[in-house]
TrEMBL record:
Name this protein carries in UniProt: Glucose 1-dehydrogenase 2
Keywords for this protein: Lipid metabolism, Oxidoreductase, Steroid metabolism
Source species of the chain: Sarcina ventriculi (Clostridium ventriculi)
EC number of this enzyme: 1.1.1.47
EC main group: oxidoreductase
Superkingdom field: Bacteria
UniProt family annotation: Belongs to the short-chain dehydrogenases/reductases (SDR) family.
Pfam families found in the cross-reference section: adh_short_C2
Matching PROSITE patterns: ADH_SHORT (PS00061)
An MF annotation (GO) of this entry: glucose 1-dehydrogenase [NAD(P)+] activity
Amino acid sequence: MNKLSGKVAYITGASKGIGEAIAIELGKLGASVIVGFNNDLEGAKRVVNTIKENNGYAVALKGDISKSNDILDIKDFIEKKFGKLDILVNNAGISNLGLFMDYSLDDIDNLINVNLTGTMKLTNALFDLIREGKNQSIINISSIWGNVGASCEVLYSASKGGINLFTKALAKEVASLGIRVNAVAPGVINTKMNSWLKDEEKKDLEDEIPLNRFGETSEISKVVAFLCSDDSSYLTGQIITVDGGML
């Protein structure tokens, strides 16, 4: 039997990048996967098909976690179709590069509403479904910049710093219910988000990483899978940094 057989997992932002890798990995381990997406329907369909090709079960679920009505629709769908939720991976997020003083008030609202407020609202709304089971896991995808902050990514850093403390505080609050809450803080990962880098810029960045390369999405998804499984049964309230030794 696979490690996650019988589990229902919902991954937000799962139509590409790190979220896609997580969805596929959890599907391989036997979980019934809900592939969350907002705009990228074709990407979500591709992920669902990949999971099915690996003999797994998956469905796509559209929803904007920055909107309360969408969150309630997400809850309604999961409750009616599955009746429970064993694994919640809060991966959806956006980032902006630029000086903090150049951002508009709307820019601040948009990023915080997705990365921090949306994550908290979604977790709150789905909590009744999560606590219905046993040995449940909530995994939040943070960032190394949530640990130390980054110039020209002040909003993103602040939102991920909030995610880190949300993780630690919630873990203490729900541990007695058998729910574990952890976060993964990736470093520089080889995704389309970093495809804009020129070869020279990429080389300079790789030189700052002791392992001398960008991480792969599969290296994040395997850590998430570990946190979802009973192999990490005594691990909660932790921020697991996966950055090749960069920080």
